[in-house]
Amino acid sequence: MINSASQYPFYGPEIKCPHCRQMIPALTLTDSYLCTRHGAFEVSLDTRDLVHVQSGRHWRQWEGEWYRQHTHPDGIRFEIHEALDRLYTEGYRATRVIIAERYRSLVKSYLEYSTPWRGQVDSSSPRLYGLPVAFSPSSTEVPQWEVINFDLEKEPGVPNNYRYLKFFE
After folding, report:
1. What is the pTM of this model?
2. Ordered DSSP codes for 58-106
3. How much is the mean pLDDT over the chain?
4. If DSSP codes are grouped into helix, strand and coil, which group holds residue 144?
5. Burial 54-84 (b: 16+ CB within 10 A, else e)
6. Under a CB-based contact definition with an 8 Å cutoff, are residues 101 and 138 in contact?
7. How far is CA 30 from CA 41, 51, 93, 168, in A?
């Protein structure tokens, strides 16, 4: 007798598409899922990453959500920018960006460092879109940071600094 679970890829008979969040079926006896809008996704047996066949983009799952794994700084910067826009439309402002440590070398050339202006305190911490940036603890200390790309600290209200709402500076 064949175990029905062994007929499906690692994540089971269906998953949410990482792009459109619609439920997509697994292709039985393969390691693939098929979205009618975005095409095929395969599960990498080594890493358990979900790989979009057409583009080669990788996603990892944490607590039921898919997180794209970036290889280029523009990808992570664009994702942070989109999250800032969502916060703004929900009535919040970001106060700090925490980026996964694994992206430090990828984004370091895009971080802004300011020198103190007359009467201001030295703000030597890096900034992105005008917001202070911190890097996460290592993923060995906090496992979610091996998957999650960034987190935004937020508070209710309209942003004081609208710089991050402009994508092209």
Report:
1. 0.80
2. EEEEETTEEEEE-SSHHHHHHHHHHHHHHHHHTTEEEEEEEE-GGGHHH
3. 87
4. helix
5. eeebbbbbeeeebbbbbeeeebbbeebbebb
6. yes
7. 11, 14, 44, 43
Closest CA to 23 of 12, 79, 55, 5: 12
Q: In the block, which residue shows the tokens 């300011």?
A: 114
**Tokens matching residue 93:** 């402002």
Coil/strand/helix, residue 165: helix
CB 62 within 8 Å of CB 144: yes
Give the position of tokens 């996964």: 100
DSSP letter at 125? Answer: S
Q: What is the pLDDT of residues 109-134, one digit of tens each?
A: 999 886 555 555 555 689 999 899 99
HSE-up of residue 140 (Cα within 13 Å, Cβ side):
0
Per the listing, tokens 């080594």 go with 46
The residue type at 66: W
Q: Are strands 131-135 and 92-99 parallel, antiparallel or unpaired?
A: parallel
